[in-house]
Amino acid sequence: MGLDRAASIDDLRALARRRIPRFAFDLVDGGAESERNMRRNVEAFKDIQLTPRYMVDVGQIDTGVTLFGKAYAAPFGMAPIGMLNAFWPGADLTLARMCAAENIPYTASSAASTTLERLAEAAGGNGWFQLYVAGDASVTEGLVARAEAAGYDVMMITADVPAAGKRDRDIRNRLAVPFRFTPEVLAQCALHPRWALTSLRHGTPNVANYADLLKSATSYAEVQKTLITPRFTWEDLKRLRERWKGRLLVKGILHPQDAADCADLGCDGIVVSNHGGRQVAFGPPTIETLPAIAHAVGGRMPVLLDSGIRRGADLLRAKALGADFALAGRALAFGVGAGGAAGAQRAMEILKLELERALGQLGVASFGAVDGSVLSPAPLRHDAR
Ligand SMILES: Cc1cc2nc3c(=O)[nH]c(=O)nc-3n(C[C@H](O)[C@H](O)[C@H](O)COP(=O)(O)O)c2cc1C
């Protein structure tokens, strides 16, 4: 199967799986422990039914959304993904450029394999910055100051990594930082020569924003320890709110009270997220937590959602249940894995065309007009009889 015959994000995942050595594919494809939460994220979306209405003029479909004062072409952006160049060489820049060309947001991860400055440039004004709060306050301040200088005006602080997620696939694959060329890794590379050669050309990926700090790190867990503190609290968030003049989002919210507290503290938005099921296996899928969170926020700030978006219709499901915008992580990453820049483009095209088609089928011409009334079973309007 070639890219042009890939009909869905699942097809792109299958293509990526063939092209990428197992240890690198698992790095992105895997989740925490039993991976129950990761699977449930995707399954829970499928369980939400929307009821089409017909005989509505849907000749002109509008997928645009205005968020934080900027008009975007589609109601989703790229979620922050660390170390993505290990999955496919050059993936960070490829996705940042694709987002700029398609006019959707690109979120540069603190743990990206490309510096935040280069990603800001590639994202051409569509860049958002994701911050991990470090144990050493000067490391955090260094990143915030760099993000400010690079021109980002949206910063997203990730709250859901108080402890590193336990990802069994990575343990089994003996994933190490920097990569160790064990006989097993070499054998996997030999079976994927295109990946291996492209990787050789690009050099070993690292966590570019902290390159100096991490010179002596020998494991992924050690990298996480430097990057992320288990002591990040509401007090720190308050300080960062005062420090950051741009829009401030908190990513990784799952509890309605946490969402309400973010609004009280003056945040500009939240991302309802469970890190794509990479942190805990026991948690709920995000789409199931969304209605109570949207209710608690009560329209005081935009609510974004990620974890499990694989279809255009998932964006409608999220909107119907109270999200203003969504982020896609693996969906776009699988595209790059399946075919570099052309694959990223194909993933974008699949999601956008599915979204447009689903809006038409639903009988709602504009994404902005999707609300809870499309949820199935549709409530009977006795008063309108
Ligand atoms: C390989 C990988 C690395 C990630 N790295 C980060 C990161 O550095 N910062 C962050 O806030 N979230 C990170 N995430 C979580 C994503 O931002 C996002 O929440 C998740 O991918 C959404 O789920 P989905 O992949 O099902 O769309 C990562 C996810 C993956 C798959």
Summarize the structure.
The protein is an alpha/beta fold and 385 residues long.
List the helices and strands and how they pair.
Elements (H helix, E strand, L loop, with lengths): L8 H11 L2 H8 L6 H11 L18 E3 L2 E3 L3 E3 L12 H12 L3 E3 L7 H8 L3 E5 L5 H13 L4 E5 L9 H5 L10 H8 L2 H10 L17 H8 L6 H10 L3 E7 L2 H9 L4 E4 L13 H12 L5 E3 L6 H9 L4 E4 L1 H33 L23
Parallel strand pairs: 3-10, 4-5, 5-6, 6-7, 7-8, 8-9, 9-10
Antiparallel strand pairs: 1-2
Helix pairs in contact: 1-15, 4-5, 4-15, 12-13, 14-15
The structure holds flavin mononucleotide.
What string gives the helices and strands in order? HHHEEEHEHEHEHHHHHEHEHEHEH
Main beta-sheet strand count, sense and barrel state:
8 strands, parallel
Q: What fold name stands as the CATH topology?
A: TIM Barrel
Helix content: 40-55%
Total number of domains: 1
Distance between the termini: 52 Å
Radius of gyration: 20 Å
| Mass-distribution shape | globular
Please indicate the percent range of residues in DSSP E strands (runs of 2 or more): 5-15%
Q: Which residues form runs of ≥5 with pLDDT under 50?
A: none
